[in-house]
Amino acid sequence: MFALLITAYIGYHFLIYPFLISPLRHVPRAHWSVPVPYVGSCWILYQRYQSRNNAVTHEAHLKHGPIVRLGDNEISVNCYEGGIKSIYAGGWLKHEWYPRQFANFGVMNMFSTVGHNPHAQKKRIMANIYSKSFLQSSPQVQANSQRLLKDRFLPLIEALANSGEEADIHEINNAFTMDFMTAYQFGISQSTNFTQNAEVRKKYLHLYHSRRDWQFISSEIPPFFRKMLQRLGVSLYPAFIHKANEWLEDWSKSMCDAADQYLRSLEGSSTNAGDEPLVFKQFKTGLLSLRQKDPTAGLEVHPHLDEGMNFTRGLTSSNKIIPDEHTTLLEVYSDMVDQLAAGHETSGLALTYLYYELAKHPEIQDRLHAGLTSLSPQITWPPSDASASLNLPSTKSIDSLPYLHATIMETLRLHAPIPGMQPRITPSTPGGVSLGPPGTKHHYTGLPANIRVSAMAYTLHKIPEVFPDPESFNPDRWLNSSEEHLTEMNRHFWAFGSGGRMCIGRHLAMQEIKLIVAAVFTNYRVEIAEGGDVGIEEVDAYTTRPRSGKLVVRMMRR
Ligand code: HEM
Q1: Binding site residue list for heme
Q2: What sign for the dihedral angle of Cα 328, 333, 339, 342?
């Protein structure tokens, strides 16, 4: 009798309910096993472990349509209506995948925060300084754009062009974007000089990327399992990860401390526009004043922070964060680290793949150059008077060059720096939630709460009805499409995500990418060195990178 009951329970729980009753049963499966409780996620976990998440999810969408079930509790969507519009514009909460790997200093930051309120309270503090109008008219950005181009970046490219030397442009791009990002955050005197200091740059990039192979553990292995192993004395991470985290933590904290010191020494009044620690100052003063009114405003404590990818110096053994000035300072550090990482890596990648596509398409390079010569003044380098300051055209005029814009959009479409899934969870709604384009056979209703649901730029950017011939690099698609089609393309363009959690740094990224591309391609051509693009294909990950980690090119004068 007991055996019969057990068999009936197992049969119902593992077969009858998931395959015949569950509201998820109609959703097409990426693999036959996915409805089975507990084991249904093994297939996609294995794919992720093998770094194949983006590819297999894309294949599943091609085969089954815009809504696909990836695991017993997981769905992937690949459409606008009933897809990214409902989930991301609808403000569905982030999955705990984010705090598992993106908190720093033992405390949450804006990116890793899950809750609506704490997130919105922090985002409001920074929204203004990352707005397009602020960035375009900021004397700080203007001063630093001049200095970074004139003193560091253009002399480096000129030296490469003169010597004919081959160079890894991916490393150089990362250097420039890190210098640009940290100059905005901390002020140029308190920021990095990766462009000129190859030793620190190489050390940072090595340590930063050395942790990547272990990201699967912190992001996908359930916290209870990790904790269980830890209690048994099994460490899932090699010792060098902790060492790398400590170095990165100290290194980024030193810039925060320098910015703090600068502010204290001037008591808030800056003498040199470029030295103003704009983001640091805005966030620190904003958060402290918010906390004076409400000591827990913007604060989120998460139970599953571990020692993997997170920097955990500030983490107490009980994970109990006390809302005091020390915690507030750690949160400022946490956001600053997140922004410098998010800011340099993504923009650096975009630049690398832009160089790559331009090198492969000299005719696009020439057309881009022709557009850039219409700027007034042109960004001519080297200048006839080396001591004169670099006279840059207005940010607005660079921004409004149509072919430059189209080329960058096409790069971000075909080579999205964050191609991977952005997981959210289905909310609790009476009658369940719906996914899939309404009025089509792909519309599924009555879906329960707490399902992990994601979209990916990787698949959205390859929908052939929206982006015909999706694998080809074609900037003209952004210029020659009908108004209606352009609206569709913009809806599906997801390099920066969408909704309330959309990238806060997108205007900064576009501005710096446009500036650097304008400065370089007005004066130089790029060509791939012999074998320089071996391994350029993108790693299958949340944030991608070239498999080889580099792109070797030759720069030539025009
Ligand atoms: C080409 C460059 C960039 C790309 C492609 C990019 C892409 C993205 C994407 C796709 C998201 C949403 C991620 C998700 O929800 O999983 C995001 C969020 C974010 N990005 Fe960027 N990003 C870029 C540059 C920057 C820069 C320069 C910063 C510097 C401030 C930045 C800071 C952030 C932050 C803080 C968030 C979280 C926003 C929130 O939760 O409200 N990003 N970015």
Answers
A1: 503
A2: negative
Contacts of 89 (CB under 8 A, 6+ apart): 498, 499, 500
**Chain centroid to CA 385:** 40
Residues 36/39/41/42 CA torsion (nearest 10 deg): -140
Q: Rounded to whole angstroms, how far apart are CA atoms 130 and 116?
A: 20
Residue identified by tokens 């309120």 is 117
- Amino acid at position 215, single letter: Q
Q: State the first-to-last Cα distance of the chain, in angstroms, to the nearest integer.
A: 86
Residue nearest to atom 10 of ligand 1 (CA): 496
Q: Which residues contact 248 (CB under 8 A, 6 or more apart)?
A: 204, 207, 208, 311, 337
Alpha-carbon dihedral of residues 6, 12, 15, 19, nearest 10 degrees? -170
Task: Looking at the CA of residue 412, tell me the nearest atom of ligand 1.
Answer: 5
What angle, 0 to 180 degrees and rounded to 10, lies between the N-to-C axes of helices 362-372 and 506-523? 100
- Separation CA 71–CA 84 (nearest Å): 19
- Which residue, 86, 140, 104, 216, is CA-closest to 491? 86
Q: In a 3-state reduction of DSSP, which class is residue 446?
A: strand
Atom 36, ligand 1: residue with shortest CA distance? 503
Counting as low any pLDDT under 70, the low residues of the chain are: 267-270, 304-323
Closest by CA position to 447, among listed 73, 191, 196: 73
**Quick check: 298 and 274 in contact, CB under 8 A?**
no
Q: What is the DSSP letter of 80?
A: I
d(CA 526, CA 552): 10
Give the model confidence (pLDDT) of 69-128 as tens digits: 999 999 999 999 999 999 999 999 999 999 888 888 888 999 999 999 999 999 999 999
Q: Is the Cβ–Cβ distance between 150 and 516 less than 8 Å?
A: no
Residue positions in the annotated binding site? 503
How many angstroms separate the alpha carbon of residue 444 from the centre of ligand 1?
A: 30
- Pick from 111, 502, 503, 545 the residue to mutate for probing ligand 1's pocket: most ligand atoms within 8 Å of its CB: 503
Q: What residue type is 404 in one-letter code?
A: L
Helix (H) or strand (E) holding 412: helix 402-414
The DSSP element (H or E) to which 167 belongs, if any, is strand 167-168
Q: In residues, how long is the chain?
A: 558
Residue 358 CA to residue 368 CA, distance in Å, equals: 9
ipTM of the complex: 0.99
Inter-CA distances, 23 with 95, 431, 433, 451, Å? 21, 11, 10, 12
Helices 139-147 and 169-186 pack at an angle, to 10 degrees, of 150
Prior bond to 377 cis, omega within 30?
Answer: yes
The tokens for 467 are 């982006």
CA distance 226 to 228: 5
